[in-house]
Structures are given as structure tokens and as C-alpha cells.
Amino acid sequence: MKLVRTGRWITLIALALLAGVFVRALAFTPVERVQGPAQKIFYLHVPSAWCAMLAMALVGIAGILYLFLKDPRFDRFGEASAEVGTVFAMVMLTTGPLWGKPVWGTWWTWDARLTLTLFLFLLFLGYLVLRGAVTDPGLRARYSAVLGICGLVLLPFIHLSVYMFRTLHPQPIVLKPSAPSLPGPMLTTLLFSFAVFTLLYVGFVVQRYALGMLREQAETAGGGAHA
Amino acid sequence: MPDWWRHGWIVARKDLLVEFRSRTAIVSAIVFTVLVLVVFNFGRDPTAVAAIDLAPSILWVTFTFAAMLALNRAFQLELENQALDGLLLAPVGRSSIYLGKLLANLLFVGIVEAVGLPLFALFFNVPILPVILPLVAVIALATIGFVAVGTLFSAMTTRTRFAELLLPTLVLPFMIPPLMWAALTTGALLAGRPLSEVGGWLRMLAAFDIVFVTLAFLLFPATVNE
Q: What's this model's pTM, rounded to 2 decimal places?
């Protein structure tokens, strides 16, 4: 199938570029003065957090579109995006503590952003569990759309909370009202990494979407023997 | 009174009537609340941790569990004899059904909280009387927020496998922000801090309520329409 191949190519290109991110981050970006080499993880952590957020937002938008247009493609996209988002959320939640231990001196703190991104991860899991618990495809699509939309609406509350707590977590340094306060080479590496992770997200989602489509076809052909 | 409000009240009254005729759910929810409070008492070392330090978490964990019980009940009630189909066939709007369920749930959880709060003050020797009004306001705001989301989700989960397990899995991530704000506010109030200090949390709670009640009204039809 064409879509599977497209997805595979995008993923391969993104993976090759990811190697480029590693090389650039390790060899061609200056070491941060205070945090030392531990800061390098920033180039993976922040982009994967971005992808997890993006995935949740797109799950919500796909939900809205599904409820309006009743097009099963949006549901399939939501499913794909949620699964890929789970993976990125997991990357974010593992790289975070790896950085936190040397820099903060603790693997985990109950700071607002950590807590709430943990719940973003749980939201993804809830979404996937809900999909697993409903057998009827129409019902499943509507239920997951509702949950996805609620998740999308929860995100701004998460973001607002971050500013209201006293927190250990670094404050935003790129997307903030004033100019980015990151030195040039670091900013370039970060933006490069953002682009690569987004491409990786697209590659994964296209593949997962194609897989979902193939599965549906197989189920229709098999008369729902495995239902 | 607009029609949808009147219809909503009829649905709520039906639920409450069913409840007060049998009283199984409300009594077990209250007993459960008392038991959770008692368990908390044995879960701490009274010589090491002052009750007042733990008070906000005790209060809010108890209310969370109690609310879960209530939320599961709301649509489970309609499963028997396919009562939900009957309700959907009735000449009332979908949003009125949601409104009814929401009102009934709020009343149910409210009663449990009204019993739980004095007992909490009694068991843990927490002076709630000086701050009773702001405390009740915080409890009301937080309860509206998570009952609104919970009622919406329970309409979905009752018709799935493992409903009792699935509902907390879905609702808890949504309950955490209001719970967090409510627990922080409760802590500040019990510590005698001025109201102005918790204004930000109260505003967040109110915003959460407005957004999620509206959203639930809009999304509810999608969970029941065939």
C-alpha cells in the first residue's frame, strides 16, 4: 500500500536527521556553563514534549472534526495521533528525570509542569484504554472524540497552572513574549531538533494511520471473526 | 422557567426519587466516606504529623473517592431494563437529560460532602468554623467542576466493559487540576491565610467550572445519540 510506504520513507528520513541532531547537539553546540553536559538532553526532551502536546491537540481537533463531519478518517487519525503521542510523552517523561537527577539533585519533584505532563500521559493512556473497551466502531469513534476534545480543553489549564506555581522547572525560554534568551547555536540546534521530531511524528502517524486502515479492511474481509 | 431547565429538573427528580426510595447508594457512599476518614486516621503517626498538615489532602482524597461512587451510579441506574432508551425517547432535549443527571449527581455528592465535612472536622480536630463560608465555596466550585466532567464520562463508560474501573481512569486526569487548586486553597484557608491570597486559585476553579460545564452540555448528545 502506498500510504505505508510513504510513512516508512518519512520515518526513515526523520531517523537519519535525528542522527544529525545527535551529532550537532553533542559536537557542534557549546556546553552549557552551569548545567554541563546534562543540558544536552534538552534537545530531546523539549521537542518530545512539544510532539506530545501537538499530538494531544490534534487528537482533540480530529475529535471536533469527527463529531461535525462523521468522517471515519478523523477517528483513525485520532487513534494514530494518540498512540504516537503516548510514545513521545514517554520519551519526555524518561528524559526529564535523567536530566533532573544531576541538575536538580532529584529524579522527580511534584512541580506543576511535571505533575501535569504526567497527567497528559495518563490522558493518552485513558484514551487508548477507552478505545479498547468499546467494541462498536461508531460508538468508539464518538466516545474517543468526546474524550479527545476534553483533553484539548484541559491543555490550556495545564499551561496556565505552570505560571501560577512556584516551580523548579525552567521557565519557557523560546516561546515567550520577549525575544528568545537562548544563545544562537543552541537555538539553532533546538529548532533543528523541533523540526526533526515533528517530521518523526508525521512519519509515525502516517504509518499508524495506514495500519489502522489495513486492520479495518482485514476485519471487514474476515467478517469480524476476531471481534 | 425555560422548558429545558424544567425537563432537567424532572430527570433529576426521577433519579433522586429512585435514590431516596432505596437509599442503598447514598447510605453506602456516606458509610464509605466515614470509613475513608477513619482509615486516614490510622494511616498517619499522630506524634509525628500534625492533623492540620494533612487535613487538605484527607478532605480532598475522601471527597474524590466519594464522588467516584456517585458518578458510577448515575448512568448505571439506566442500564436496567434499558431505561436509557426510554429516557432518550422521552420528549426532552439531550441537554436536559444531562442537566438532570448533573443536578442529581451534584445533590448526591453534596449530601455526602455535607456529612463528611463535619466528621472530618470532628475526627481531625480541624477548626473549620472560622472559615466555613469560603471553605464551602471552594468545595462547591471544585465539586461542580469534576462532577460535570464525571457525569459526561460516566454516560460513556457505563456501556463499556470494566465501567467501574474505566471511569476513574478517565476522570482522574481531569479531576487533578481542580483538586490541586482546591487542596491548596483549603490548606491556605485552614492555616488562616487571607482570602486575597487564594483569589487566583478560586478564579481558576471558576474558569474550569464554566468551561467544562459548557463543554459537557455541548458534547453530551454525542455520547448518547444512536
A: 0.86
CB B221 within 8 A of CB B88: no
| Percent share of chain B, pLDDT over 90 | 30
CB contact under 8 A, B173 and A154: yes
Q: Dump strand ranges (E) for chain A.
A: none
Residue pairs between chains A and B whose CB atoms are closer than 8 Å: 75
Of B215, B171, B2, nearest in space to B74 by CA: B171
Cross-chain residue pair A149–B152, CB shorter than 8 Å = no
Look up the domain containing A56 and give its range: 2-27+39-170+182-216
The answer as to whether A223 is a domain residue is no
- Cα B35 to Cα A33, A167, B39, B53, B128: the distances in Å are 54, 35, 6, 20, 20
- Taking the CA of residue A226 and the nearest CA in chain B, the distance in Å comes to 17
Q: Is residue A176 part of a domain?
A: no
Domain residue ranges of chain B, discontinuous segments joined by +:
3-224
Residue A177 maps to a domain: no
The total number of structural domains that make up chain A: 1
A33 domain residue, yes or no: no
Phi first, then psi: give them for residue B192, nearest 5 degrees. Answer: 80, 20
First to last CA, chain A: 24
Q: Determine the distance in angstroms separating the CA of B22 from the nearest CA of chain A, rounded to an integer.
A: 31
* Low-confidence residues in chain A, pLDDT < 70: 33, 111-112, 116, 162-181, 223-227
Q: How many CA atoms lie within 13 A of B210 on its CB side?
A: 6
Q: What is the ipTM of this complex?
A: 0.87
Closest CB from B166, B180, B215 relative to A129: B166
